[in-house]
Amino acid sequence: MASQKESKGKQDDSAMEAEKQPTKSHQEEAKHVDADQDESSPEVDSLVEVLHGDVTEIEADTAIESIDVWVNFLKGHKEENVKELSASLKELKKLLKGKKTEASEIAEVLEQLGEQTTAIGDDSGKGIKGPLHKVGKALAQAAKKIEKVAEKAE
């Protein structure tokens, strides 16, 4: 016959196992998790922080790595506006790799990315709309900063 201590331990183990098993409500909740909370999604807040900083100081390789993360995240989406956003990211990557790229070209693509991101945000659900608008606005502001630096350089 098991002692009370052994019985209590078995009950605690059973309770812990039950907590680990997803209930129907947990499964339903998981289906409704917003894309901005998806573990595989890139970190939106850190991107916005970088874009609000001095974007002219970002190393091209670092920016390219970040672009690759976003392009990979967007792969497989069939929505036309997401495909266009991915194409713009690839265009920005190409410009950043170029040796004779003008700052105004980068600014133009960043502005386009800002507009596309904001438009996608307009069509998105509640949980993702705000973060997408933040990124869109930050991209547009980064474009303006780069444009100002380019004007001063001329």
Characteristics:
154 residues, mainly alpha, disordered N terminus
Give a nutshell description of this structure.
By secondary structure, the chain is mostly helical. It contains seven helices and no strands.
Account of the protein in words:
This protein is mainly α and 154 residues long. The protein has one domain. It has 7 helices and no strands. 75% of the residues lie in helices and 0% in strands. The longest helix is centred in the last third of the chain and has 28 residues. The chain is globular, with a radius of gyration of 23 Å.
Secondary structure topology:
Layout: H1 4-20, H2 24-31, H3 44-52, H4 60-74, H5 80-97, H6 103-122, H7 126-153
Helix pairs in contact: 3-7, 4-5, 5-6, 6-7
Fraction of helical residues: over 70%
The structural domain count equals 1
Q: What is the approximate shape? A: globular
Spans where pLDDT lies below 50 across 5 or more residues: 1-39
**Rounded mean pLDDT score:** 78
C-alpha end-to-end distance: 89 Å
Beta-strand share of residues:
under 5%
Rg from Cα: 23 Å
Total beta-strand segments = 0
How many alpha or pi helices?
7
- Note the run of SSEs as H and E: HHHHHHH
- Sketch the major β-sheet: none
Structural class label? mainly alpha
